[in-house]
Amino acid sequence: LRRLLGALIEEMYYLRRRGRVVLVQPLIAALPYGTMVRLRTSLYRLAGVRIGTGSAIVGPLRIWGPAQLTIGANSTINGPCAICLDGPVTLHDGVLIGHDVIISTGSHEIGPSHARGGHVVPRPVVIGAGAWVGAGAMILPGVTVGAGSVVAAGAVVVHDVSPNTIAAGVPARTVRHLNDSGEHLTKDGEQDIEVP
Ligand SMILES: CC(C)(COP(=O)(O)OP(=O)(O)OC[C@H]1O[C@@H](n2cnc3c(N)ncnc32)[C@H](O)[C@@H]1OP(=O)(O)O)[C@@H](O)C(=O)NCCC(=O)NCCS
Prior knowledge:
By secondary structure, this protein is α/β, with parallel strands linked by helices. It has helices at residues 2-18, 21-30, 37-46, and strands at residues 50-51, 56-57, 61-64, 69-71, 76-77, 81-84, 89-91, 96-97, 102-103, 106-110, 117-122, 125-127, 132-133, 138-139, 144-145, 150-151, 156-157, 165-168, 173-177. A hairpin with a 6-residue loop joins strand 10 (106-110) and strand 11 (117-122). It binds coenzyme A. Residues 78, 96, 98, 134-135, 150, 152-154, 166, 168-169, 175-176 line the site of coenzyme A (COA).
């Protein structure tokens, strides 16, 4: 009986940590992908995610600790996506997140050889206003993706991405600078000059 009680207390601890999202997750899972976007978005609000007006969550999110997630106005998240909320994640206004993106805020201290994954080290992630994170990209703990930038599909972002740039590859590096209207500049941010 003592063991059963211990297991129950442990489960209650994890249920508390995951917050209200455990209650809405089964409902959200039942919603067909790409439909009932308003309902899905409202359910995430109910779970405790702060979501600005005009934002839409198009598919399911794998999240825990919903109070740590803040989404600005007019942003779109094309789930399924995994957002690990050991630390805070802030998406500013006008952000677009592609499907199958992973955002991670939790790393571990590297422990001794018998248990390398030591204590959790939470670090925040910020996605700046107007940024687009392409499908399958992975944003690692502590990264800020600058406003107006693009993270290419499949990129693994280990360092901050400068505003108004395209970052691509593994690890992600700046491949282009962008001007306000979305035209490419060169890698150094200079305007391409047409050679006659
Ligand atoms: C990043 C992206 C927008 C760039 O597209 P673009 O503006 O047409 O730019 P280009 O194709 O000219 O690419 C610019 C450079 O980045 C490289 N690049 C582009 N996408 C890349 C990627 N996913 N991984 C690695 N390198 C990439 C190109 O090879 C090129 O490099 P080069 O100068 O050495 O030739 C596009 O490649 C991309 O990843 N789109 C995401 C699509 C997606 O996720 N859709 C889901 C809907 S949200």
